[in-house]
Every structure is written in structure tokens, then in C-alpha cells.
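Teaching note: in complex prediction, the entire set of molecules is handled at once rather than each chain in isolation. The prompt given to students was simply: 'Predict the structure of this complex.' The entities are:
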Amino acid sequence: MNSGGTDTKKRQLTLYFGPQHVGMVGNFSITLTVEGDTIQKAAANPGFLHRGFEKMLEDSTYIQGFPFVCRINVMDPDPNEQVYAMAIEELSGLEVPPRGQYLRTIILEMSRLASHLGWLWAYANELGFDTVGHWAMAQRDYFLDLFDMITGGRVYHIYIWPGGVRRDMPAGFAAKMRGTLDGLEKSFRDYDAVFFNNRVFRKRVEGVGVISQGDALRLGVTGGNLRATGLARDVRKVEPYAAYDYMDFEIPTMPDGDSYARAMVIRGEMKQSASIIRQALDKLPAGPAWNRVPNPFKWRIPPGEAYVRMESARGELGAYAVSDGTDKIHRMAYRVPSYPHGILVLENLLQGMNIADVGHMLLSLNIAAPEIDR
Amino acid sequence: MREEAIKQDIENRFSASSVTVPRRQRIIISLPKDSLFSFIAFMKEEGFLHLSSIICVDWIEEDEFELVYHLTSFEEGIHAMVKTRISRTEGTYQSMIPLFEHAQTYEREIHEMFGVDFIGNQRLTPLLLTDWKEIPPMRKDFNTREYSERMFEHE
Amino acid sequence: MDRANIRKAIKDPHKWGEKYSLWVTYFCTGCGIMEIPPTITARWDAERFGVKPMATPRQANLFLITGYVSIKTLKAIIISYEQMPNPKYTVAFGSCPIDGGLYYTSYNTINHLDRYLPVDGWIAGCMPRPEAIFIAVTKLWKMIEGGMVDGYKRYEENIDYYRRNQERVLGREFIESSPAPMTEEP
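The expected output is the structure of the full assembly:
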């Protein structure tokens, strides 16, 4: 430590931020080189949640893969199932009936809402707005109740299936869903007053962690973090999957690329998600919700390759599948949105920031550690 | 169709390539490994500005690794898969960092999981694993079940 | 609390305090952590049971191991566990720490957590719902009352066994750098 200001030489220290750290949400670690309170260099250190899914998928049949893939991202599990199912469908030529596509849209948007509300809890908590955190987490729990009702599980659902979904909507689900969405939309007034429009919050986040549009494109940023730099790019519009072609929704963007812009993009997305779920419930076609899958023990998929992608809560989620004609996949690789965000973008952003900003930045970029590690 | 136009363009410029259009919004291009770098530079100029990921596939019977570069053009809505094969025993290839900075992380992972060396990438340090002593785990000849039983089922 | 309970509490305030102030180490070790935020916030409110997250392991006495343990995490878990003061309790979530569960064949997750650390309780299911966590807490109370939670004592007594297994997975270097676990009672 320096004394009295006469000694201007500062000591460089190496600081391990996480995995056991109160500012760290998720099992992730960053090695910081600090001088005083300023970060000179940050090196992300992932791998605490590495389970080797891609290896285990090569060792299991196509249907056995479903319990694995949803666990790639615990905050937002359904998109991982969706890309896996889409890849299998593309390789095998299996069709999904319209009702199945609409039900998939509903479950994917519910997952996005649950993920964003979880983010709101974590972000509000990190910045000291505990009340908002409590509200958001309780609100998320009502969506988990709905998941429970339709799939039987609160967190992991294994609901999306090749050729459709695993079961149809139970009676009373639509009404309960509408009620929960009403509750969410009503509570935006409170979230705005206490959090998003709060002067304390805006002072803390405005102008912090700016990513320019050029940097974002250079470093492979996608999703809400890219939309916060002013580019309206969304896989749901570029390459519509499920029933997004028939939905009317906007892509929220913000021009500045700072933490505030990213938070406001997520806020806008929650509103759009609620509207998409309402539309899907209104337009839900009659008919079967799934097409029959061949006997899973004998299901061989013709050789070929497919890349499928979609928009998860964090950005572009892709899956590259290679089949060699056997009953097991030859290679299944995931392209996860947190991967560029959590390593290079984060390391670049943290340079020159304060130690107090580390946890804030991790959440502002909406990084999911399990997704990076897989 | 825009995909067919791009296919024609590529076939005219790079005679060694084989291009297929499996469906709308997808192009698959296979190239020999020496022309890949200049090809990706060409694609970047054509508007394929987003490198989605780099994926390695182990073809153990042919003794080759296949590197698949996923490039996206958001303006055209087209996703291109650029593939090349490298020797599995040699396992070296040139880095794409001069074209796409974030290729660094993907190459780090491929280095760790498959053992491919990328010349020009200064940061091929361990990413997900710690103190790994066996052959790289994503290679087809690594048996994860046998390893798990040997390491964790002792007593 | 009724009169009889007050008398009991006064007789043994140490145990009473231990029981109703289970402070959890703030460490998201696996995917089961996703059920902790709902559990500690308004809807389920774990603070009714005296359970709340603590910033550092040095102030905590309950370690929730929430799901699968990868090798890298195991290192951090052991370091955190040894920093916790006695008496300390560990509860493991889901089937993955019991026998590897879904990740039995994985090359990077251990299969039996109790070979590396003493575990006082297991909660089955993937992932355990908040109700299951509360049932585990009430069971832990009963065990504390009966003096049946002896994980930390077992760790000290059988330190050679645990260290041997840890060394097998984490390497000699890690063992040499870790100090002996705390032995004194508070």
C-alpha cells in the first residue's frame, strides 16, 4: 500500500475473482491483474462446469441425447432442445405439425421470459436493488409453475421432441398463462419506477461498458448485446423457425451499446415475448401436436450434415450435426452465444475498469457460464 | 436464387472448390487446405462478416480432421459452411485470427479438445480442462466411459 | 416458541443457535443452484428456516453442493470447505454427486462426491424443488439435535483416506499446497 502520496510506484497484484465470490453469479472465474482498484488485464477462466456433452452425445442414441442437451444452459434450457430437435429433423426429414410449431413457440418464449426475469433478479441484486430482485424472482416462479403444468418439470423440461412436442397443452393452461402474462405486464410499471427509470440505476450503468458497433461485429457479438449497439439483427426474423413467421413482433434496439442499453433491450424483449405468447395462444391451430418418431432403439438417420440456428435469450444459438448413418450421431457441436461474450468481449471490456464492475459486467453481458463450458 | 448466384461466383473464382446448396439459406463449400485462407478472406469481402464458430470433426477412418468454418451474412440471410480437411497425424493448421479476432477462442478449444495446433495463435493455453494428461478428449479414439471408470470408480 | 422450547434453548444455546442459523456458502457449484434463487427470495423464503447465503465460507456453516462436480470445481470446493469453521455441514443435490448420475461417463465430472469430501445429507431428484430443500433443512435440524451430523469429524479422522482420493484426481501438487484442515471446536 502506498502512504502519503509521495510514492507513486504502484504494485501490480493478481486477483482471482471467483468461482467462490459474492460478486460472481454462476460458476466462473476471472483472473485479474490489478493496480490499485483498476484492472490492467483480465483473463477469463471457464471450465468449472465442463461436462463434455459433445462427447457424451456421440455415445448415446438420438433420443438419449435430449436429457443431455437441455442441461447445457440451466437458465434457458428449451432453446438447446429446439436446436437439437431441429438438427435431427433436418437430417431425417421429419416434419412438425403446425400445432407442434406453435407449442414450441410458446415454450421457447416462456423460457426466454424466465431467463430474462432470472437475469433481472441477478442484475438488480448485484447493483443493490434487492426489492426488484425479489419481485422478479417471484414472477419467474409463476412461469416455472406454468412449465410444471405443461411439462412436469420446473427447470428442465425435455418438452421439445423430434417431430413436435412431447405432449399437448393441458386444460386450463391458456387461461393461467394469460393471467400470468397480465401480472407480468402490470408489474412493468413497478420495475420501471424502481429500477429501469431509477436515477441511481441510470447513474450506475449509463456509459459503463460501452461496446461500439464495430467492436461488436469484429468480436462476433450476437443477440441482445448486438441489438444494444443499434443493429436490429435477430435470427427469428432472418431465418424464422417454429411459428415465428406468423407472429407479429418487433426487435427492440438501443443506440448506445452501454450497460443501460443492454438492460433496456432485455426489458423490451420481455414485452415482445409476452406479446408473442399471447398471439400464439390466440392463433393456436387444431390438430396433432407431434408426428410419430420411429422406434428410438432402431432409429438410423441417413448420412449428412446440418447447421441449424435460432435466437436464444442470449443470442445466436446454433448446432452443427454430422450423421454417419448409424443410430448415434457422429458429431454434434453447439455454437453458444455466451462463448464470444464471456471470453474475449468480457476481457476487452474489463480492461481499465474497476474491480467493482466485474460482477456487473458479467451480468450486463448476460453471460451464462454453463453454456460456455458445456 | 441468391444462393445459386453465390455458388456460381465461387465456382468461377475457386476452381478447386466443390459447392452444394442443401436448402434455402445454406451453402456448403469444400476446399483444399491451402486455398482456405484466401477463400475466407474473399467471403468476408462478400459480406460474410460474422464468424459463427469453428468446429472440428474427427474422421478417424480417413485419418483426417475436418475443420468447418461457419460464416453468416446477415444482409443476405445466408449461412455458409466452409470445410477443409487436414491430416490427423500432423494436426497443424494456420490460424484465422488475422481475419476474425474471435477465432482465437474457437481455436483454443479445438487445440484442447482435438490437439490441432494453429500456427499464429499465441494463446493456445488450456481453456476448459485442468491438468489433462491423456490424449485430447474429443478425439474418437478417446474412450470417455473407460476413462471415467478408471479415474473415478476406484477404491 | 413455547415455554418448554425456551427452557430447552436456554439449556443448550449453542445447539439452538447452530440449528436455526444455517448460513450457506455462496458458491454456485452446479446447475442445481438454479433452484436456490427462488428458495431464498420472496416466494419460498428460506429465511423462515434460518437459511441464508453468506458471502464468504469463513462465515458459513452449510455447504450446498448443487449438482455435478467437475474436476476444476472439486478443487475450489475442497478449498472452500476447508476454510469453513467447525461445525460445518454439507448437503449434496441431485443424483450427480451420488454416483455420477447423468454424467457417469463424463471424463470431467467425478462420480462419487463422498470419496473426496464428507457429505451429511443427500437430496434426490434433478433438480430438487424448493420443497425438497426445506425438507432437507428440517431433517438436518433433527440430525443436529441428535448430534448425528459428524461429517467434519469424519473428515479430520479419515483425512488420509480423503487426501489419497483427492490426490488421485487433482494431483500431488494440490495436496501439498493445501494446509491441514482446522481441528479446534469454536
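Point out the following to students. The mean pLDDT of chain A is 88. The radius of gyration of chain A is 22 Å.
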